[in-house]
Amino acid sequence: MRMLPRLMIEPLVRAALLEDLGRAGDLTTDAIIPADQEARVALVSREPGVIAGGECARLAWELVDPRIDVHDLLPDGSRVAPGTVIATITGPARGLLTGERVALNFLGHLSGVATGTATIADAIAHTKARVVDTRKTLPGLRALQKHAVLAGGGANHRFGLDDAVLIKDNHIAAAGSVRAAVLAAKAGVGHLVKIEVEVDSLSQLSELLEVGADAVLLDNMGPELLREAVAIVDGRLITEASGRITPASAVPIAEAGVDLISVGWLTHSAHVLDIGLDYLA
């Protein structure tokens, strides 16, 4: 899969390293390890999952010491089993140990996002629905987390407030109605900007269909109500389901016929994939 450009990820990795090194550097490693000692280590998965964030890990070590080499790094999107070697790393032992935590933080977290995405993508693979992320991302890490969702077989929703219109319940409340909110949005944005509207009832859906939009977010509806909503839409809008969706509940929701299922916990509460750094020599 396409990797994010270094220009995007280097500031994040550099900031993480600066946070870890503080004002005096790695006191432990510098006191114990001779400056000329070389080492060879391996990144190893402790549990099954999907890898993402490998380039962040590589860059963490490269920024600590450019003499460090990362070999045979599995590409993002690779599926691993317990014991799978994700990469081997060679170079100055001090740099390997100093960069270890930052490299593992990025790799473990982003692989967790990819793995969580894959659990839902796999569960609904027999349907037309796709799992997508949300804006419920960790501050500063949105691009990396959304990249990890792609690695797990999902798709990206909007990246921010500036690339699409999503009219939610409070927008509708402030505007007075679905119709008023949609008409105002159409008058206020350019013709290339997509408009999606969140509805939580069939009456709101009917009102939306009267004024038209590009997509509808069917919020907190059960499978039967979703099935009815999809039939009413009849292909006129992209249909998206959301609301506390788990891998188990995603299946009947996808089978109701929606196009998209958006899941916030993929990014805001992702389980960290257990990846270790094993000392080889």
UniProtKB/TrEMBL annotation:
It comes from the Bacteria. Signal peptide: none annotated. One of its GO terms (cellular component) is cytoplasm. One of its GO terms (biological process) is NAD+ biosynthetic process. Keywords: Glycosyltransferase, Pyridine nucleotide biosynthesis, Transferase. GO terms for molecular function: nicotinate-nucleotide diphosphorylase (carboxylating) activity. It holds the Pfam family QRPTase_N. Residues 26-111 form the Quinolinate phosphoribosyl transferase N-terminal domain. Its EC number is 2.4.2.19. It is an enzyme of class 2 (transferase). It catalyses: nicotinate beta-D-ribonucleotide + CO2 + diphosphate = quinolinate + 5-phospho-alpha-D-ribose 1-diphosphate + 2 H(+). SUPFAM superfamilies: Nicotinate/Quinolinate PRTase C-terminal domain-like, Nicotinate/Quinolinate PRTase N-terminal domain-like. Pathway: Cofactor biosynthesis; NAD(+) biosynthesis; nicotinate D-ribonucleotide from quinolinate: step 1/1. Residues 113-278 form the Quinolinate phosphoribosyl transferase C-terminal domain. InterPro entries: Aldolase_TIM, NadC, NadC/ModD, Nicotinate_pribotase-like_C, Quinolinate_PRibosylTase_N_sf, Quinolinate_PRibosylTrfase_C, Quinolinate_PRibosylTrfase_N. Belongs to the NadC/ModD family. Involved in the catabolism of quinolinic acid (QA). Hexamer formed by 3 homodimers. This is Nicotinate-nucleotide pyrophosphorylase [carboxylating].
